[in-house]
Amino acid sequence: MAIERTLSIIKPDGVEKGVIGQIITRFESNGMKPVAIRMQQLSRADAEGFYAVHKERGFFKALCDFMVSGPVVIMVLEGENAVLKNRDLMGATDPTKAAKGTIRADFAKSIDANTVHGSDSVENAKVEVAYFFRTTEQCAYEWKR
Ligand code: IDP
Ligand code: MG
Protein backbone atom coordinates (compact mmCIF):
# COMPACT_ATOMS: atom_id res chain seq x y z
CA MET A 1 0.00 0.00 0.00
CA ALA A 2 1.14 3.51 -0.71
CA ILE A 3 2.23 6.04 1.88
CA GLU A 4 -0.16 8.95 1.51
CA ARG A 5 -0.66 12.38 3.06
CA THR A 6 -4.04 13.73 4.05
CA LEU A 7 -5.31 16.94 5.63
CA SER A 8 -6.98 16.71 9.03
CA ILE A 9 -8.61 19.55 10.93
CA ILE A 10 -9.78 19.39 14.53
CA LYS A 11 -12.75 21.77 14.34
CA PRO A 12 -13.61 24.41 16.99
CA ASP A 13 -15.86 22.00 18.95
CA GLY A 14 -13.02 19.48 19.32
CA VAL A 15 -10.62 22.16 20.54
CA GLU A 16 -13.27 23.58 22.93
CA LYS A 17 -13.99 20.11 24.30
CA GLY A 18 -10.30 19.54 25.05
CA VAL A 19 -9.89 16.40 22.98
CA ILE A 20 -7.00 17.46 20.70
CA GLY A 21 -4.72 14.94 22.40
CA GLN A 22 -7.23 12.09 22.27
CA ILE A 23 -7.86 12.67 18.58
CA ILE A 24 -4.16 12.80 17.68
CA THR A 25 -3.62 9.64 19.75
CA ARG A 26 -6.18 7.84 17.58
CA PHE A 27 -4.26 8.84 14.47
CA GLU A 28 -0.91 7.83 15.96
CA SER A 29 -2.19 4.51 17.27
CA ASN A 30 -3.54 3.72 13.82
CA GLY A 31 -0.28 4.10 11.96
CA MET A 32 -0.43 7.74 10.94
CA LYS A 33 2.11 10.38 11.85
CA PRO A 34 1.58 14.13 11.85
CA VAL A 35 4.19 15.71 9.55
CA ALA A 36 2.87 19.26 10.02
CA ILE A 37 0.67 20.73 12.77
CA ARG A 38 -0.57 24.27 13.36
CA MET A 39 -3.18 25.79 15.62
CA GLN A 40 -4.95 28.66 13.90
CA GLN A 41 -7.91 30.99 14.11
CA LEU A 42 -9.31 30.83 10.57
CA SER A 43 -10.46 34.06 8.96
CA ARG A 44 -13.75 34.02 7.06
CA ALA A 45 -11.75 34.14 3.81
CA ASP A 46 -9.71 31.11 4.95
CA ALA A 47 -12.87 29.12 5.70
CA GLU A 48 -14.76 30.17 2.57
CA GLY A 49 -11.77 29.39 0.36
CA PHE A 50 -11.21 26.02 1.96
CA TYR A 51 -14.86 24.97 1.60
CA ALA A 52 -15.35 26.65 -1.82
CA VAL A 53 -16.60 23.34 -3.31
CA HIS A 54 -19.64 23.65 -1.02
CA LYS A 55 -20.40 27.32 -1.72
CA GLU A 56 -23.71 26.62 -3.46
CA ARG A 57 -24.95 24.38 -0.63
CA GLY A 58 -27.54 25.57 1.87
CA PHE A 59 -25.25 24.78 4.80
CA PHE A 60 -22.26 26.80 3.46
CA LYS A 61 -22.80 29.90 5.62
CA ALA A 62 -23.43 27.87 8.79
CA LEU A 63 -20.36 25.75 8.05
CA CYS A 64 -18.12 28.81 7.61
CA ASP A 65 -19.64 30.54 10.67
CA PHE A 66 -18.81 27.45 12.69
CA MET A 67 -15.27 27.07 11.34
CA VAL A 68 -14.38 30.66 12.38
CA SER A 69 -16.09 30.38 15.80
CA GLY A 70 -12.85 29.38 17.54
CA PRO A 71 -9.35 28.08 16.87
CA VAL A 72 -8.76 24.87 14.96
CA VAL A 73 -5.83 22.46 14.75
CA ILE A 74 -4.76 21.82 11.18
CA MET A 75 -2.44 18.94 10.42
CA VAL A 76 -1.00 16.82 7.67
CA LEU A 77 -1.11 13.11 8.49
CA GLU A 78 1.15 10.65 6.74
CA GLY A 79 0.82 6.89 6.62
CA GLU A 80 -0.19 3.88 4.58
CA ASN A 81 -3.57 4.46 2.99
CA ALA A 82 -3.84 7.65 5.10
CA VAL A 83 -6.76 9.24 3.22
CA LEU A 84 -9.19 6.33 3.67
CA LYS A 85 -7.84 5.39 7.08
CA ASN A 86 -8.52 8.91 8.35
CA ARG A 87 -12.05 8.85 6.90
CA ASP A 88 -12.68 5.50 8.64
CA LEU A 89 -11.44 6.83 11.98
CA MET A 90 -13.58 9.99 11.58
CA GLY A 91 -16.89 8.23 10.89
CA ALA A 92 -19.86 9.50 8.89
CA THR A 93 -20.48 13.25 8.43
CA ASP A 94 -23.63 13.05 10.56
CA PRO A 95 -22.48 11.89 14.00
CA THR A 96 -25.82 10.18 14.68
CA LYS A 97 -24.96 7.90 11.73
CA ALA A 98 -21.27 7.49 12.54
CA ALA A 99 -20.11 3.98 13.46
CA LYS A 100 -19.43 3.20 17.12
CA GLY A 101 -15.89 4.02 18.19
CA THR A 102 -15.28 6.63 15.49
CA ILE A 103 -14.18 10.16 16.37
CA ARG A 104 -17.48 11.71 15.32
CA ALA A 105 -19.57 9.10 17.16
CA ASP A 106 -17.55 9.64 20.32
CA PHE A 107 -17.06 13.43 20.33
CA ALA A 108 -19.37 15.20 17.86
CA LYS A 109 -22.62 16.95 18.81
CA SER A 110 -24.20 17.58 15.41
CA ILE A 111 -23.61 17.57 11.66
CA ASP A 112 -22.39 21.18 11.95
CA ALA A 113 -20.16 20.64 14.96
CA ASN A 114 -18.74 17.33 13.84
CA THR A 115 -15.27 17.65 15.39
CA VAL A 116 -13.02 16.76 12.47
CA HIS A 117 -12.39 17.38 8.80
CA GLY A 118 -10.55 14.89 6.60
CA SER A 119 -9.70 14.95 2.90
CA ASP A 120 -11.91 12.59 0.88
CA SER A 121 -9.46 11.56 -1.88
CA VAL A 122 -5.74 11.53 -2.58
CA GLU A 123 -6.28 14.20 -5.21
CA ASN A 124 -8.23 16.51 -2.88
CA ALA A 125 -5.72 15.84 -0.10
CA LYS A 126 -2.96 17.36 -2.24
CA VAL A 127 -5.03 20.50 -2.85
CA GLU A 128 -6.09 20.79 0.81
CA VAL A 129 -2.59 20.23 2.19
CA ALA A 130 -1.24 22.90 -0.17
CA TYR A 131 -4.03 25.28 0.93
CA PHE A 132 -2.66 25.35 4.48
CA PHE A 133 1.00 24.28 4.38
CA ARG A 134 4.01 25.21 2.29
CA THR A 135 6.20 22.26 1.32
CA THR A 136 8.91 23.58 3.67
CA GLU A 137 6.46 23.39 6.60
CA GLN A 138 5.95 19.65 6.08
CA CYS A 139 8.50 17.35 7.66
CA ALA A 140 9.91 14.29 5.96
CA TYR A 141 9.45 11.13 7.95
CA GLU A 142 11.43 8.01 7.30
CA TRP A 143 9.16 5.01 7.78
CA LYS A 144 10.77 2.08 9.53
CA ARG A 145 9.07 -1.18 8.67
P1 IDP B 1 -17.26 15.56 5.37
O1 IDP B 1 -16.74 16.58 6.36
O2 IDP B 1 -17.69 14.29 6.06
O3 IDP B 1 -16.31 15.31 4.22
P2 IDP B 1 -18.85 17.14 3.49
O4 IDP B 1 -20.01 16.60 2.73
O5 IDP B 1 -17.58 17.37 2.75
O6 IDP B 1 -18.61 16.15 4.75
O7 IDP B 1 -19.32 18.48 4.17
C1 IDP B 1 -18.40 19.37 4.78
C2 IDP B 1 -18.96 19.77 6.13
O8 IDP B 1 -20.15 20.53 5.92
C3 IDP B 1 -19.37 18.62 7.03
O9 IDP B 1 -18.31 18.10 7.80
C4 IDP B 1 -20.44 19.24 7.90
O10 IDP B 1 -19.87 19.94 8.99
C5 IDP B 1 -21.08 20.23 6.95
N1 IDP B 1 -22.28 19.64 6.35
C6 IDP B 1 -22.35 18.73 5.37
N2 IDP B 1 -23.61 18.38 5.07
C7 IDP B 1 -24.38 19.12 5.88
C8 IDP B 1 -25.79 19.24 6.05
O11 IDP B 1 -26.60 18.59 5.39
N3 IDP B 1 -26.20 20.12 7.01
C9 IDP B 1 -25.34 20.86 7.76
N4 IDP B 1 -23.99 20.78 7.63
C10 IDP B 1 -23.52 19.92 6.70
MG1 MG C 1 -15.68 16.59 2.72
Question: How would you describe this structure to a colleague?
Answer:
By secondary structure, this protein is of the alpha+beta class. Helix content is about 40%, strand content about 20%. The chain contains seven helices and four strands; from the N terminus they run βααβααβααβα. The longest helix has 11 residues, at about 120-130. About 35% of the residues are buried. The structure holds inosine-5'-diphosphate (IDP) and magnesium ion.
Strands in their spatial order, largest beta sheet:
2-3-1-4
Shape: globular
Say how many strands there are: 4
Q: Average pLDDT, to the nearest integer?
A: 97
What percentage of the residues does DSSP assign to strands (E)?
15-25%
Which radius of gyration do the C-alpha atoms yield? 14 Å
Instruction: Decide which structural class fits the backbone.
Output: alpha+beta
- Report low-confidence residues grouped into runs of 5 or more: none
Main sheet makeup = 4 strands, antiparallel
Helical content band: 25-40%
Present as ligands are: inosine-5'-diphosphate, magnesium ion
Secondary-structure element series: EHHEHHEHHEH
Tell me the distance between the termini. Answer: 13 Å
- The DSSP helix count reads 7
